Amino acid sequence: MTELSSWLNTVSSELGITDVELDNNDIHTLLDLARDSAHEVERLAAPLTSYLVGVAVGRGASLGSVAAKITALALSDESGSSDDSA
To answer: Is 37 exposed, middle or buried (CB count within 10 Å of its CB: 0-12, 13-18, 19+)?
Structure first.
């Protein structure tokens, strides 16, 4: 078992959500989402965006569709990021 797998299992157990499993596809989706949020918006956007996506998934949305929507938003000009340093 890798360190990441062990960590995720420990966190799931601690939170009482051992019925939730992240497969490799889910992990890559979340990591890509965090990367795009961090690079296209700002670093702090990565964990906060991931949290909001988790809330949406917890409320019934599919991870793939939510991640695709938010990745597209982060990569668009509507992401809220600004190159202004005023």
So the answer is: buried
Q: For residue 74, which of 62, 86, 48, 59 has the smallest C-alpha distance?
A: 48
Q: Tokens for 52?
A: 């909001």
Vertex 36 angle, CA 12 and 53, to 5°: 40
Radius of gyration of the chain (CA): 14
Is the torsion defined by CA of 51, 28, 71, 42 positive or negative? positive
* Amino acid in the structure at residue 59: R
**Which tokens is 29 given?**
């989706």
Torsion angle (degrees, nearest 10) of CA 66, 40, 42, 59? 0
Distances (CA, A) of 4 to 22, 24, 66, 76: 11, 11, 23, 31
Q: Is this model's pTM higher than 0.85 or not?
A: no
| Predicted confidence (pLDDT) per residue in 58-77, tens digit | 999 999 999 999 999 999 97
